[in-house]
Design a protein that fits this description.
Blueprint: H1 3-12, H2 16-23, H3 33-42, H4 44-51, H5 53-58, H6 76-92, H7 96-111, H8 123-150, H9 165-178, H10 181-186, H11 190-193, H12 203-231, H13 242-247, H14 251-279, H15 288-302, H16 306-318, H17 330-334, H18 388-396, H19 402-407, H20 410-417, H21 424-439, H22 445-453, H23 459-464, H24 467-478, H25 481-487, H26 495-506, H27 508-513
């Protein structure tokens, strides 16, 4: 492709769906193909944005799947039909930007079922689904290069029945993909993938994915070609140069966004891995889309009430049979369709934080206190979640020390403060955080915030908990908006740190006398 394409690709394509939507443009074979490419590239930000709308905006996750062994359960065919028709209609009306937006959305609904894990549902798959997607994302460029070398001649043939072209295209792709459903489970190593996502797949798994990524891009190019032919229009002339594109690029911002996305994905996969290691199942940390599909599958396909699902899931896990290694045959696809350190604690309600300098929280007084980082005689400002302004408000109602905070009635404190964001529950959280820090040796303020947010409000609850379970609960909390806010001012704990909290809680009496 042209330098222009490469610049836009490098700037805008940050994820698998972004890249597949752009890579399909490589294979346009329609008349005036280069002019159509330039039209798409002119509207590349809109096209790229649209390719993720089903995940970010619509969140209609049942429409992202097509379970071919469950009588084609899922809404992907209907959505492909809908957005293909929108694409053609907008082209006919010469609403070019609308057409490209529709094409971007269509790319998502078409390509999702060409990933095997969107063509079936088993517990073995659900444990690693998000980890596999992350590994594909991080390995995409290498997989694409492998596909160019090994599947250069791969072609996607239109379905014989063209009456419902778009729906039949996604049905055909899902059938191709589903053949590798069990293979991908067998050839993914979660232990490696959670640390280095690029190493999650063995050589066979990489070949499968290289093949399917190539198939996805080529198949979507066929859909674009057919839609353009059906519209019967000529593309407008586009004045677009590499220089004009470069002048509009904000590289530092893109780097920041890319880093944020990677960090969130990494936390998600790590959380699922930790839950799997701790409990043998992934439930609490399942992403919203996976959880929705799991529940809809239980209800609509299995017809099971929630209380019976775990029984089915355990049996399903026991029956998983991993296939022998099979090398994908490129020729098969040619015929498809023919037949840690001390950190300042954070409270989202505290007005002292995040105001860009003015009114920022002063450092809390350093203490030479190796055993307990908080004592009841300390000023209330030293308690977790209490900033300078909140402490000043508390002093007005005669709460000056940590001990006075702990003794106060939460509802009465809320009423006297008369601040909309401070409810009785908010005050109880402050009290439980402070109590934990006073009773557990070497527990820092943000650690106490983690524990209370996850329901570990007393020393007894901390002592009785397993480190693995506590870590899983914290990982799940970090995926919430409150968790993300807390994480901005400190690193997430690891298993060794959580074990230290619990061990110190068990030995608190010896610390008190030392």
């Amino acid at each position: 492709m042209s330098l222009l394409f490469k610049i836009i690709y490098a700037t805008h394509a940050n994820g698998t769906h972004h890249k597949l939507a752009l890579d399909a443009l490589r294979f346009l074979s329609v008349e005036n193909g280069r002019d159509w490419q330039r039209l798409f590239l002119k509207h590349a930000p809109r096209y790229i944005e649209a390719s993720k709308e089903p995940d970010k905006r619509f969140k209609d996750f049942k429409n992202h799947v097509l379970h071919v062994r469950d009588n084609n359960w899922g809404g992907a065919p209907d959505k492909c039909r809908e957005w293909y028709d929108d694409f053609v209609s907008s082209l006919i009306a010469e609403k070019w930007e609308d057409a490209i937006y529709s094409a971007g959305v269509l790319s998502h609904y078409y390509t999702d079922p060409i990933m095997p894990f969107h063509t079936g549902q088993t517990e073995a798959e659900s444990q690693i689904h998000r980890a596999v997607e992350w590994s594909v994302n991080k390995s995409y460029n290498a997989l694409w290069r492998q596909g160019e070398q090994e599947y250069k001649m791969l072609m996607v043939v239109k379905p014989e029945d063209e009456i419902d072209f778009a729906a039949n295209m996604v049905l055909q792709g899902a059938e191709v993909s589903n053949r590798y459903y069990s293979h991908l489970i067998a050839h993914y190593d979660f232990d490696k993938g959670v640390v280095r996502p690029e190493e999650g797949f063995n050589s066979h798994g990489r070949r499968v994915l290289a093949e399917l990524l190539r198939y996805s891009a080529r198949g979507f190019a066929v859909m674009l070609d057919e839609g353009i032919k059906a519209a019967g229009v000529t593309p407008p002339k586009v004045n677009l140069t590499a220089e004009t594109v470069m002048s509009g690029i904000q590289i530092p911002l893109k780097w920041v966004l890319r880093k944020m996305d990677d960090a969130a994905d990494k936390r998600q996969v790590q959380a699922m891995y930790d839950e799997l290691q701790a409990t043998g199942r992934v439930i609490k940390t399942l992403p919203a889309d996976d959880l929705m599909i799991r529940e809809l599958h239980r209800e609509e396909v299995l017809g099971l009430p929630p209380e019976d699902y775990d029984i089915w899931a355990e049996a399903d896990e026991d029956e998983v049979v991993l296939p022998e290694e099979v090398t994908p045959d490129p020729e098969e696809l040619l015929n498809v369709g023919k037949d840690k350190s001390e950190r300042r604690s954070y409270d989202r309600h505290d007005e002292d934080r995040g105001e860009g300098g003015a009114g920022t929280l002063p450092e809390k007084r350093p203490k030479n206190r190796p055993n307990f980082y908080l004592k009841k005689q300390d000023d209330v400002v030293d308690a977790p979640s209490i900033g300078a302004k909140t402490a000043a408000r508390l002093q007005v109602i005669d709460i000056r020390s940590v001990a006075e905070l702990l003794q106060a009635d939460p509802e009465e404190v809320s009423r006297k403060l008369a601040v909309s964001y401070v409810k009785g529950k908010t005050v109880r959280d402050w009290q439980d955080q402070a109590e934990l820090q006073c009773q557990i040796p070497r527990l820092r303020g943000h650690d106490a915030q983690f524990l209370v947010a996850c329901g570990y409000r007393t020393v007894e609850q901390v002592v009785a908990a397993s480190p693995e379970t506590v870590l899983v609960d914290i990982q799940a909390f970090l995926m919430t908006s409150d968790g993300e806010r807390l994480l901005r001012v400190g690193n997430e704990p690891d298993l060794a740190e959580v074990k230290g909290w619990i061990e110190n809680a068990k030995q608190r009496d010896s610390f008190a006398t030392s």
